[in-house]
């Protein structure tokens, strides 16, 4: 079973904000005393915290799904919903936080460093907070927004002053056990060490940490063996200590060839921008296992060649502890010099400048996308997207409030500039978003004038009638009405129809019968 994990993917879901409340205060003799709906509570954030007491990401490997609680809804009588507590996730020092695409978000190298990786949703306003002089009793409230949901990557890079590198079974774990209180697993087979081990070493007044990096072999920088998985743990170190096995039984190996292979792999491994290449850092060489007579002879033989290359060479034995004191103080000297250099570099860093938001930054953009039935106008921006989430589209008053907010933000002007017309398809937000058929809110027809500057197409063809035209139109209507009345009189006199007044006036024929309407004289019954 794994006991050390240095790379995980977390699936996070922050809490949603609570909805605002729609409520009207009712008292005796005051059935409508005004709105009193409270605001919804904010959802819980998810925060990463660098903790020196944590050394592995194993806990997140076993349970990568984490979510915080939602905020509470608002209530009447101006009672706000409860705000959810944030969730803190402790990670080891040296953890690099990346988004789902692999872009670096933070490098957590300082104890107590905090970063909000999943912000919670914002609580919605109640109708009491939405009341104004123009809207005295809002019949709607804002909904809570959704919390952030997505994946982040955590990659652990060990923070150590000295990294022990070398072939498998060269004695790195034995060395760290001999000079510190660390107790790594030690065995007589290759790749005993499956994860980096940290040890704290005291050398006089200097205290430094040593990392036992799993064994490297040829091709490690290309992914062969375990090297590629653990070479990143060398990135943080100040100095490198090459552990060379002088008692190897492999006839194809010797200390010089082992060193050349390790140097080739370290040179091929790319370090992040801004860091020193691995081979540009201080390097020392330790010829191990000199407690074996043949190994001591080989160490004496190659020591001169290594010193000719510019290395400080120490002959050591992790069994008899011979030469460890001199090596310990030499490493402390290198570490102390590196810390002084790092402090000077830290002081020379440029000051961080925070610039305010530009005055002409509208906070949104309008993108024109092609569609099967014409252009689609997509609005991308923090405010419009949040406002859409807060709107209850089953409430007409809430939809009207959204329209007013979007108009004040200047979205309609930008849509018109982008070529949108009444009825165009508008989408707010990425992906599917919320789709609208744009109906512009116009205060005058000036928004739709596209004539060149200094001209107005409304003045080119005047449709205003003169007094003579209106008089002629009036007399024409009067003549038409007189002609219609005369035609009706002629039809009635001809007997084609009657008004029926004779029936109600008691007019009857001589024999007492009622004359038949619409019948002319001489026609049969």
UniProtKB/TrEMBL annotation:
UniProt GO MF annotations:
GTP binding; GTPase activity; magnesium ion binding
Q: What class of enzyme is it?
A: hydrolase
Lyase listed as a keyword: no
A single Pfam family it belongs to is MMR_HSR1
Q: Which residues form the Obg domain?
A: 2-159
Query: Where in the cell is the protein located?
Result: Cytoplasm
Q: Which residues form the OBG-type G domain?
A: 160-336
**Region feature (Disordered):** 453-472, 494-525
The residues the record assigns to binding GTP are: 166-173, 191-195, 212-215, 288-291, 317-319
Could you provide one GO biological process annotation from this protein's UniProt record? ribosome biogenesis
* Cofactors: Mg(2+)
Q: Which UniProt keywords apply?
A: Cytoplasm, GTP-binding, Hydrolase, Magnesium, Metal-binding, Nucleotide-binding
**Role:** An essential GTPase which binds GTP, GDP and possibly (p)ppGpp with moderate affinity, with high nucleotide exchange rates and a fairly low GTP hydrolysis rate. Plays a role in control of the cell cycle, stress response, ribosome biogenesis and in those bacteria that undergo differentiation, in morphogenesis control.
What is the official name of this protein in its record? GTPase Obg
Instruction: Give the originating organism.
Output: Cryobacterium mannosilyticum
Q: What is the lineage of its organism?
A: Bacteria, Bacillati, Actinomycetota, Actinomycetes, Micrococcales
């Amino acid at each position: 079973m794994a006991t050390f994990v240095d790379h995980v993917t977390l699936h996070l879901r922050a809490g949603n904000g609570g909805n605002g409340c729609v409520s009207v205060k009712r008292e005796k003799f005051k059935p409508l005393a005004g709105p009193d709906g409270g605001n919804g509570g904010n959802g819980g954030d998810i925060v990463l915290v660098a903790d020196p007491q944590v050394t592995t990401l194993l806990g997140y490997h076993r349970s990568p799904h984490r979510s915080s609680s939602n905020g509470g809804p608002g209530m009447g009588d101006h009672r706000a919903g409860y705000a959810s507590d944030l969730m803190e996730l402790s990670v080891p020092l040296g953890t690099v936080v990346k988004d789902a695409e692999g872009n670096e978000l933070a490098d957590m190298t300082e104890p107590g460093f905090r970063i909000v990786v999943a912000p919670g949703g914002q609580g919605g306003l109640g109708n009491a907070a939405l009341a104004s002089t123009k809207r005295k009793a809002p019949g709607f409230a804002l909904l809570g927004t959704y919390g952030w949901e997505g994946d982040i990557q955590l990659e652990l890079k060990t923070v150590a002053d000295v990294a022990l590198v070398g072939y498998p079974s060269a004695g790195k774990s034995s060395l760290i056990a001999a000079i510190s209180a660390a107790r790594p697993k030690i065995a007589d087979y290759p790749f005993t060490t499956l994860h980096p081990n940290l040890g704290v070493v005291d050398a006089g007044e200097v205290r430094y940490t040593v990392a036992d990096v799993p064994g490297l072999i040829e091709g490690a920088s290309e992914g062969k063996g375990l090297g590629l998985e653990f070479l990143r743990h060398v990135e943080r170190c100040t100095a490198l200590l090459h552990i060379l096995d002088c008692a190897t039984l492999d006839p194809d190996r010797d200390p010089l060839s082992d060193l050349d292979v390790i140097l080739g792999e370290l040179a091929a491994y790319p370090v992040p921008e801004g860091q020193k290449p691995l081979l540009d850092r201080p390097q020392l060489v330790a010829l191990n296992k000199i407690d074996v007579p043949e190994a001591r002879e080989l160490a004496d033989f190659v020591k001169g060649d290594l010193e000719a290359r510019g290395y400080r060479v120490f002959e050591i034995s992790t069994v008899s502890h011979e030469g460890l004191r001199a090596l310990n103080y030499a490493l402390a000297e290198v570490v102390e010099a590196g810390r002084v250099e790092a402090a000077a570099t830290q002081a020379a860093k440029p000051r961080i400048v925070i610039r305010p938001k530009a005055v002409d930054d509208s906070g949104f953009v309008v993108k024109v996308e092609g569609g099967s039935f014409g252009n689609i106008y997509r609005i991308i921006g923090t405010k419009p997207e949040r406002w859409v989430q807060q709107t209850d589209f089953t409430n007409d008053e809430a939809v009207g409030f959204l329209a007013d907010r979007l108009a004040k933000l200047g979205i309609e002007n930008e849509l018109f500039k982008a070529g949108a017309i009444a009825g165009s398809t508008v989408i707010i937000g990425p992906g599917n978003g919320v789709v609208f058929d744009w109906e512009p809110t116009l205060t005058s027809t000036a928004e739709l004038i596209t004539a060149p500057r200094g001209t107005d197409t409304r003045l080119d063809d005047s449709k205003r009638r003169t007094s003579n035209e209106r008089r002629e139109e009036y007399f024409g209507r009067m003549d038409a009405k007189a002609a219609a009345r005369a035609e009706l009189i002629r039809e009635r006199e001809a007997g084609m129809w009657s008004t029926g007044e004779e029936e109600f006036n008691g007019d009857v024929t001589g024999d007492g019968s009622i004359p038949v309407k619409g019948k002319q004289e001489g026609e049969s019954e």
